Amino acid sequence: MASIFRIFQHGLQRTKAGLMRRLQAIFSDTSAWTEETYEQLEAALISTDLGAEISTRLVSDIRDRYERGLIATTSDVLAVGRETVLDLLRPGDVPPVHRNPDGPTVILVVGVNGSGKTTTVAKLAYHFREQGQSVLLAAGDTYRAAGIEQLQIWGQRVGCAVVAGKQGGDAAAVAYDATTAAVQRGSQVLLIDTAGRQHTRRGLMDELAKTGRSIDKALPGAPHEVWLTVDSSTGTNALVQAREFGRLFQITGLILTKLDGSGKGGVVVAIRQELGYPVRFVGLGEALDDLQPFDAEMFARALFE
Ligand SMILES: Nc1nc2c(ncn2[C@@H]2O[C@H](COP(=O)(O)OP(=O)(O)OP(=O)(O)O)[C@@H](O)[C@H]2O)c(=O)[nH]1
Ligand SMILES: [Mg+2]
Fold this sequence. Notes:
8 strands; 14% strand; elongated; binds magnesium ion
């Protein structure tokens, strides 16, 4: 298996390549750093979607160190970037995943259309199976044609049973049945897929809240974790989505999908900084083993080393 660092490096290569190209252009023929250098540097950082606030702060930190004669090269700039990003991700403050000691740990996966919920549920199933845990899946997307079938196909691939209802049926009822089934079967993890919904659609958001309540009815205290999938390429809109879903549930983690395809890996840091939600996993490709537990240090190194 490739080392975790290599996996992050690979997944972040577009973000990194874009950043390096800009940094080289800025520093290749710059003997003394000027106002223009800092402006370009800020633009380069913003292009990774680190966000304006973090980018500005990073640049002023770099400027300060340069003026005090502490740094002088591109690799010094990268080192400051790495250090700052790691600091902002606060890996030491990420609470462990809430596990239910007396039964299934129920994890509800929510997010806007196409953000990667269903494939993430499959990848998570694979992850927990690899850890030797018994996993049950729930096809809570009763809206989209083929939404149920898509999860069933994944279930077969991973070797997990899937609780499903009818298309057009009541998603909250499926979630209730699946939770009851997970208890009866003695499953260790229940992963519940949900229909994609725009955070601006009130009716659909209410239905999601109802799904949450029916899970709690089937197993008081559940869901134990609510994970929001966010497509990393959505940039700052990811912040809006996270905020809106956060009104329905206490979001306990984020899953940043499609980091491999976007040049905007910095959004991970912006969300952590603004909303405090910890990143649990990142999606670095389409294969089952392309979902990686988030590692702040590997992330910071892959971006800036
Ligand atoms: N490259 C890459 N593709 C991904 C990743 N995660 C998901 N995808 C792709 O994104 C597309 C949408 O994924 P789904 O899992 O169907 O998304 P969803 O949120 O369930 O979509 P809806 O149910 O329609 O709301 C699929 O083609 C996935 O293969 C990732 O981390 N990297
Ligand atoms: Mg889906």
